[in-house]
Recover the amino acids of this structure.
């Protein structure tokens, strides 16, 4: 009888973490919005930032890389730290670090100071992102509103990606490049003040020693893989640096697996992959990340280099996509609750592939309303469904004790997929552009052809994800 009562109390515990869980979700989503926003808002401001701090092209790329590397590399560790030492505690630590680093980035007087601040931003984001998703899972058990909560979460994440392009242009043009970092401070302070009042204190689960060597090898391994993908854009797939980083990443991840199998307190318990939904869901999230990051990067170049739009207009043209994404993320959860996350995910990815193919067929002198508005709306709606259903599939039937680990896995899959997808799709676009005569009289047509190839490549990733999701529906 005592065991039954304890089990019932544990099952009820997640819902009791907050008396106003929807408001708590809003604040958590706001923090996630900052993380996604900060990964994209810098792109538009890079020229102004480089002129202000005297950074050349090579150092400018590190303004992005300095954030992405610690973020992607530390997500697994951040998720496990949240499981061990408390999800609310680790989340608040991540938000605090993000605020301080954002303030330092905006006040930077030189390149090294900015790069160090960006690295701390990425490390802080790696703490708060998996902890925030784990808190969502605790606030909303699988049978009690989780689909709707993930709909809001997915809409906010998608909005952050698009808002970064628009806000980056507006803030840089009106105030200056430092504003793209200062905007994080008041929002972060709001989150920091609200969460302690909305969420109950953590119960520390374990004071066992942290798997230090496992943490080191997984972090360095993921960093090496993301760095290798980043180097593809500068040096190509076959450069010694790219191949060396890739080989180091694979070797470190192999060593990590050996360490975990022999560790009494592993950082990652491989038993979580016995959950078929977790394994297949993360594979699909990886492919979605590759398609989405590559799409937004190439779409921005397409608008500016082929159609001649400025940064502000480029951001405005992505608003329909963002609105469609938000609408789909709000509408699809009830349907997902009826038919399941895997069928919803498969259907969303098929629609996404169709929208990308339609986009690839746009003429060189495309009119936005006639040729681009339709496919971007289709793509936005499909992404809304894919984000929500993919996350739901990847965290299905995960225990509360492993919620941080599962959240770290989802975020890591998305980051690695984004880095690899960007490298592959941009290389595909560049290769075809060069073969069509880049730099010649038909340069615009060559660029358009290369971007169309990238869209078709993203469609292929979406279809592969749909096949995996369809396989997940089998008993």
């Amino acid at each position: 009888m005592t065991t039954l009562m304890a089990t019932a109390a544990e099952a009820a515990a997640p819902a009791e973490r907050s008396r106003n869980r929807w408001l708590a979700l809003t604040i958590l989503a706001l923090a996630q919005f900052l993380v996604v926003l900060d990964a994209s808002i810098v792109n538009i401001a890079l020229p102004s930032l480089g002129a202000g701090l005297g950074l050349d092209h090579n150092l400018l790329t590190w303004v992005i890389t300095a954030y992405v590397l610690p973020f992607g590399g530390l997500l697994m560790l951040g998720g496990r730290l949240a499981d061990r030492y408390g999800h609310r505690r680790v989340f608040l630590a991540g938000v605090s670090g993000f605020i301080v680093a954002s303030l330092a980035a905006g006040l930077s007087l030189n390149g090294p100071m900015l790069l160090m601040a960006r690295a701390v931003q990425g490390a802080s984001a790696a703490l708060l992102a998996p902890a925030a998703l784990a808190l969502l899972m605790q606030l909303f058990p699988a049978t009690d509103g989780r689909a709707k909560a993930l709909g809001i979460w997915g809409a906010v994440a998608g909005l952050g990606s698009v808002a970064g392009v628009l806000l980056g242009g507006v803030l840089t043009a009106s105030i200056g490049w430092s504003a793209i970092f200062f905007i994080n401070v008041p929002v972060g302070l709001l989150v920091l003040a609200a969460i302690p009042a909305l969420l109950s204190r953590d119960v520390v689960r374990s004071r066992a020693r942290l798997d230090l060597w496992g943490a080191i090898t997984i972090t360095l391994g993921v960093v090496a893989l993301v760095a290798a993908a980043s180097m593809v854009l500068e040096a190509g797939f076959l450069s010694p640096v790219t191949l060396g980083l890739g080989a180091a990443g694979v070797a470190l991840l192999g060593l990590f697996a050996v360490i975990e199998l022999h560790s009494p307190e592993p950082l990652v318990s491989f038993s979580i992959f016995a959950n078929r939904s977790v394994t297949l869901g993360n594979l699909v999230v990886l492919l979605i990340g590759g398609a989405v990051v590559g799409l937004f990067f190439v779409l921005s170049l397409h608008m500016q280099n082929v159609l001649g739009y400025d940064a502000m207009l480029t951001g405005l043209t992505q608003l329909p996509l963002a609105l469609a994404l938000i609408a789909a993320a709000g509408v699809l959860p009830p349907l997902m609750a009826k038919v399941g996350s895997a069928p919803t995910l498969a259907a969303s990815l098929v629609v996404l592939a169709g929208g990308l193919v339609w986009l690839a067929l746009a003429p060189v002198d495309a009119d936005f309303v006639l040729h681009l508005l339709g496919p971007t709306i289709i793509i936005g709606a499909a992404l809304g469904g894919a984000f929500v259903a993919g996350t739901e599939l990847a965290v299905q039937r995960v225990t509360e004790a492993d919620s941080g680990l599962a959240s770290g896995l989802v975020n890591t899959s998305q980051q690695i997929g984004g880095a690899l997808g960007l490298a592959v799709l941009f290389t595909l676009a560049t290769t075809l552009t060069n073969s069509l005569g880049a730099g010649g009289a038909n340069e615009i047509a060559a660029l358009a052809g290369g971007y169309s190839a990238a869209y078709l490549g993203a469609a292929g990733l979406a279809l592969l994800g749909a096949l995996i999701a369809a396989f997940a529906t089998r008993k």
